[in-house]
Amino acid sequence: MPVSIYPIGIVHNDLERDNTPFGRTGTGTISKIELFPSQKQFMYGLDEEPEITIVYYLHKSRSVKTLFNRGLDGKRVGVFASRSPDRLSRIGIQNVTLMKIRGTMLTVKGLDAISGTPVLDIKLKI
Q: What is the pTM of this model?
């Protein structure tokens, strides 16, 4: 049964989707997450956490392949044994380093989501 999930913010960086196997270009490891103003009330104590987990929607996901050669080592695998951005659920989860917060703008290091990606949730590091 489908579910409705609403974003809480959006990713800004220099990463873009392309046709390479992993599907992105860009050099930056620093991203800004612009939370919507309505999220300010939920940010209390976030500035005390050095690492957080970002849950996001893979809005430019392509069709999922049953089997493919994994980008890390070339091993033949299915999507559940990979970090492919082309996923059945279109949900991405990644631990990042929280570098700075200014208002509702978070600066993080290590997020591989492309610019324009909707952010669904923020949690303590898994």
A: 0.84
